[in-house]
Amino acid sequence: MLHRGPDDRGYEEMSGEAGNGPAVAFGFQRLAILDLSQAGHQPMIHPQTGDCLVFNGEIYNYRSLRSQLQAVGSRFRGTSDTEVLLHALAAWGEDAAGRLEGMFAFAWYRARDRRVLLARDPLGIKPLYVAEAPHRVVFASEVRAVLASGLVSRDLDPAGIAGLLAYGAPQDPLTVHRAVRSFPAGEARWYDLAEGVRPQPGRRFWRFPATSATPVPRDTAARHLKHLLNEAVARHLVSDRPIGVFLSAGIDSFLIAALAKQLRGEIKTFTVGFDETGLLDEAAEAAAAAQTLGTDHHAIVIGTDSVQGLWERWFATSDRPSIDGFNTFVVSQAVAAAGKTVALSGLGGDELFGGYPNFASARRYQRILAALHPLPRFAKKAGLLIATQGRRPIFRERAAELLDGGPDLRRITLRLRRILTDRQINRLGIEPGRVGLDDDYLSRSSLASTATDRVADAFNVVSHLESVLYMGNTLLRDTDAVSMANSLEVRVPLLDQPIVDFVSALPGKSKMPSGRPTKYLLREACRDLIPEPLASRPKTGFCLPIARWMHGPVRESCEASIDAAAGSGVLDAREVRLIWQDFLASSSNVHWIRPMTLVALGAYLRNSSTTSEAGAYGQPTPTDR
Q: Is the dihedral of CA 445, 600, 317, 314 positive or negative?
């Protein structure tokens, strides 16, 4: 865990009653950001109650909470949000979790009744992994830290691996290990130590708000959103350490940088580019945006000769298998090397405001499938064959699965996010029912914070699913792992809780009216900040040349990972190798993303079996730093 907190470390152990029974042990590696003095040291002990807290993240409304607590008698010796959280828990108990606005995962030991409370922020921006066993619970911010305790089995979980194959990353609450689970976002859970370690039923303190029944005029919504954005960026800029901003060619990061520039005056921005000819990247557009903003801009250029080393280190730092996160790893490494400890990211804009093609295509498919639904099965199949004649087999396979799912918008949205098809996963040796998953390769609690089965607003159905599954299980998890591997904290102002609560409750037509560009409400709220060339440019996405690399500089590494996946004992080894061989033989017909799921799994298995401690990450010791 050294890479997550090289500035300070602490350990506290609380003995059981009369010296007997279970003990509570909290360890912490600190990345000091607010109150760099020893007043921010963790684990933190409450001077009056003897309660103990370990907390990872940032509480953005900590100043408001501090004032409330001071009004009822709390006295503070430092200026950290950790101390505010400790006093809030002592004053309000588990209800404190619902008052927090920020990204957080914490464990709080309440001395008076010897109980431990675990909690995680509403969207799961910060990770928390738990392994429960009789008379014991182990928790940490990384899977490998839980495993390194030596108290938890490393056995692989076919259900967690199935989620990786289906969606490109394990799907909460599962990991690729049977014994380790991702703690639910937006939930708090007590562990009672009086008679052994007994987990109590979890309590949800946040869900997506219901869609407002009263239409909100778009001008009113845009003005309020602009106010919330200003407030969010201002709160996310509070730090006692230097801050940078990730800058791409899109409007999300541009807006964050523009608001930060207005508030801070001088900021540094960072982007990633390539030195390979014939490749399109965002470097030129990002540089032009930086020039418009007047920021101190830094471009990180990836050369072919450096790809292999970066690729290996990316996988070594990822903590869990995922097909995403390479570009965030590279830019995080550069931002940290430039002396920054905090970076702001535009992550979250696509999910909240409708930036993905899936928002339109899911509803289009729903209309088509609704029209076909009354037809006899043979007629639908015949129409499918005609419509997909001449298309690749995988396209026809995906179309057939969409057809079988019918006009259910939830299922359509999930299908559009799928990597491997049902048939491909079955050939690899995993069937969803046999490993406790539903037909969408999800566990029953995967969508606990949503109510997509009861939401009539199509935009919000897609938004909830994209936020919980793709953003929550891939983007946020990868961003945290690869940034913290570089001792860098990434903050996401667009996911500030007041913004999420306000925007999620708006009806879809207020956010993306028919015939308007994507992320319409966000554009309207910030028209005075967005230059016309950027405002009118369609979303292009940031595409790394992964396929070219897999055929070239990282092929040897990929093949070693394919061998590890084939030897996992969970998947059919012959089918694993066939998927890889098909990719090598016909790169135009086999998208890199499918074999990449197996490469990611194999790379994780290779690294998890050979690495221990932070030395494998190549991190400096606290003395070096």
A: negative
